[in-house]
Amino acid sequence: MKAQWFNSVDQIGEAKWQEAIGETRYPFAQFAFHQALEQSKSIGDGTGWYPEYLLVMDDDDSPLAIAPTYLKTHSQGEFVFDWSWADAYQRYGMRYFPKRIWAIPFSPVTGLRIFSHLDPKGDDDEFSHLYPALAELMTQANQERAFSSWHLLFTKPEHAALFAPNKDLLHRISCQFHWFNRDYKDMEDYLSHFSSRKRKTARKERDKVAKEGITLTRTIGKDLTTADIDFFYLCYQSTYAKRGQQGYLTREFFGQLAKNMGDQILLVQAFRGDEAIAASWCFFDDHSLYGRYWGCMEEVDCLHFEACYYQGIEFCLEKGLQHFDPGTQGEHKIARGFEPVFSHSIHYIAHEGFREAIGNFCEEEAQAVREYHQDTHALLPFKQES
């Protein structure tokens, strides 16, 4: 077995990439996703994101697996926040950037971080040894270039556990809120599992949007028009503009995805009459819906909940999907039935002194996260088991 670094998906080639990943439907493993990031210039020169893909091959050069990594000159678009770590380095006159992240750009969704036809679902114990093995290659590559650190973000919990024997690696946890399909027949059946008061609140939220004369549509990516994508992108950028920022991703990125990954994209749009006023863009595979980007041109009470959560849940129920990962943060998700889950990241800090200090921080932070995780269970809307 051997491995080689590439700084463009086109250097690997679609045929070899798809041979490596095999039958996995995980949207963020697809060649088309990473090619769209590069070709749309959402990553690359001037963005602070510089791809370095690690291709693992058998001795006969047949592709076995791919790990996506990126050299970063800032910490934006990662959602596992290390700003204070970078500040500490700067205060001591040391360089934190560039660093390496092992992650999916702009995507705080838990999932595979090694894409392989040997383990398309990421649940094969015999394959999992590749995670610590590739981590050693990451460390070696970092040491050769004197990088401060590498960071494995939003990895699956069972993969995070594989790194426990290596005391030089730091394990960090945070809390997200995910929805799980407990064999619900439809939306009415799902809401019937809420307590009476919480069920009334949820229905009132949905009714409030309907009484405003707003209708919502769900469209699969391959059926999107240029006008649909243009409007969505206007909404996407408006979300950042309200914070005085600009969205990381370009219009070309979304257009290319709709063209090349259209069967794994869902666009929810809200209309007042014939006029579109809001949109939410998601990805999906055979198991999960991944909620991603949202924006609105008109503020309407409860529309965010409807477009980003209730519509997604309905889609999962219609398609038989078992899980809805709506991304990071947001306690408001709890009242809509999204349950607290831990997310996991692994960090290699080259400097021994900083490694110890950051390790202590991660331990203290983890205690607070566990308490928060426990407390949020009490806020879930479901009926109490008798």
Automatic annotation (TrEMBL):
<dbReference type="InterPro" id="IPR016181">
    <property type="entry name" value="Acyl_CoA_acyltransferase"/>
</dbReference>
<protein>
    <submittedName>
        <fullName>N-acetyltransferase</fullName>
    </submittedName>
</protein>
<dbReference type="Pfam" id="PF04339">
    <property type="entry name" value="FemAB_like"/>
</dbReference>
<dbReference type="InterPro" id="IPR007434">
    <property type="entry name" value="FemAB-like"/>
</dbReference>
